[in-house]
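Box S2. Input/output pair 1.
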Amino acid sequence: MTKQDFNEGLLGFLDASPTPFHATQNMAGMFANAGFIELNEKDKWSLEAGKKYFVTRNDSSIIAFTYPKNEKEYLLVGAHTDSPNLKLKPNPIIKDFEVVRFAVEPYGGLLLNPWFDRDLGLAGRINYSDTSKKIQSVLIDIKKAIAMIPSLAIHLDDKANKERTVNKQTDISPVLTCNGEFDFDIFIKKELEKLGIMDVEEIFAHELSLYDVQNASYIGLEDDFIASARLDNLLSCYVGMLSICSIADDKPMIFIANDHEEVGSDSTSGAGGNFLEATLKRMFPSHEEYMAMVRSSMMISADNAHAIHPNYPDRHDERHTPFINKGVVIKVNSNQRYASNATTIANFLANAKEANEPIQKFVTRSDMGCGSTIGPITATRIGIDTIDIGLPTWGMHSIREMAGSDDAYSLYNILVGFKI
């Protein structure tokens, strides 16, 4: 696969995945097309050596794995499907001042200022009862720009360029329409009718997010960069998904993409839940086999890394400054905010050297806080040796982030040839 083919597929995946539900659905489709067999957690599993499988939970997390005979040394690649965004509240309609607005709640640690003056679509999951009183679930994606959060003009805020602050309750309600007769349930039913769903009796619940309808794209004089929403962490999801689809069936590998990382991972579908552990125990029902596999395997937690920002170089440790398009970043933190240790770092470096791919290292400034990932959570819950790595990006948690057009492909090349 060429880098251009890889990146073109990445752009398409980003555009088609406005929510964790859509990202999971798209990855499930990719796995099915690649010959993976879908499993259901509610059923009894009868796994056959030599075949490949995938399973989802909550429509927002997914695990795919190969199942070679008598293999215990697995490479696990972990990522997360969720990104910071604005979610609609359960009663989402505000009518005042001759306009209709959405009531929203920030999800995760998002940068709020970039959300102003953007063309916003709406996507997510709807649960409803049909005319036979059965509860159904469906995904929707309203790609049309149906809303915007207008900025307050500088004439009315002379401090806007000096000390701009955003109130999460009062300042970020997107404007939807001037039609005071607007009814949310009727609006949703009409959108479902566009999908051919004509038997909706009542809308029960929704998990809907606003998103920027601008497509992912190349940026730069020589297409140096990729700009898109949700690079954190669909970038890693795409690399992990494509990697396990590209390896031989007899190579032991597991790919995990969990939801809810941006809010702490504590959920049934988050890394703090038992999704991965339960799957591994069904793959290896004997406790001895399970423990032998865990202690013989290695986990790569792939999440984005902070590239040095040319306008703010002082925000980095000058000896640990990742650059865009200079390779995968190994993330290290002595306080275990990242799970990397000398053993897993050495293993990853050896594989990168074998693949002839560059590697960088990141340590946050000692006088600044350090974020975390699913790496320490998975290492703690499962007991597996883990390394935290990432692809260098700018604008993390903005409505539109930037990454290099070389780095994701570099990680892909490392993973497809990785040896434990």
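Box S3. Input/output pair 2.
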Amino acid sequence: MPEPVPDPRLADPRVAEAAAHLRGAGFGGPFACAVVTGTGLGTLADALGERVSLPYDAIPGFPRPGVSGHGGRLHRGVLSGRPVLVLEGRAHAYERGDAAAMRVPVGTLAALGAGALLLTNSSGSLMPRAGPGSLVALIDHINLSGLHPLVGEPSDARFVPMTDAYDARLRAHLADAAAECGIALHEGVYAWFCGPSFETPAEVRMAGRLGADLVGMSTVPETILARFFGLRVAALSVVTNRAAGIGGGDPHHAETKAVAGAAAADLVRLAAAFVARLDTPSSGSPA
């Protein structure tokens, strides 16, 4: 019989090193899902039972976030009776000009046995019906940054299909969870701008004409990386402001953190109800 062909996605020695380190620190999987928290949304980690935590700078290859509102810790614990991982904060492309800044963390989630990834972020809204404090499930994205996290990847795995980047079944779980919690959950398309400056009104108008409902500075590179590593993806956006030029919108970072913090309670309730709908890893069936 021919020798099995190694999966090039798992050949990154940095991912292997980080995963081995975390298994030795008690972070072995599998997990029902992993969650990445956005600006001001790190309180999700406080909802975990049996929590064990490590700072990113204690994990080989993990970047240290340089943005206020991103704690920079990895947590394992139990949410709604399911084992989960929570990455409290992310590194952004605008911090070092590296769209692949989250490659090692996302790859490590896959290596540890997280079959699904829930991404969260803060965003500016172009939708009249979804003002500050609203929650929006992403159905698609537009990459307006000019960057890509798989530039330089040598294998053919770099040609990642993105037709179903945001998994339909996971989105259905989010919708059911929102109905159970009595939370209004919108759906929308997210446009990724590199940042760190906020978008201009002209850029927001352009994004709207291209089909965007939200604008922000994250999430898209993690989604691409997650699909590269074989993770199914769902994403939740907390609207923290009207996008620039929309209804008097004039966003700034302090507003983003304040509104995200106020909406965090709804996001935690929704995330817990979502995780409750995922199969436990021992069941052997897909979520």
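Caption for Box S3: The first strand starts at residue 33 and ends at 37. The first helix runs from residue 13 to 24.
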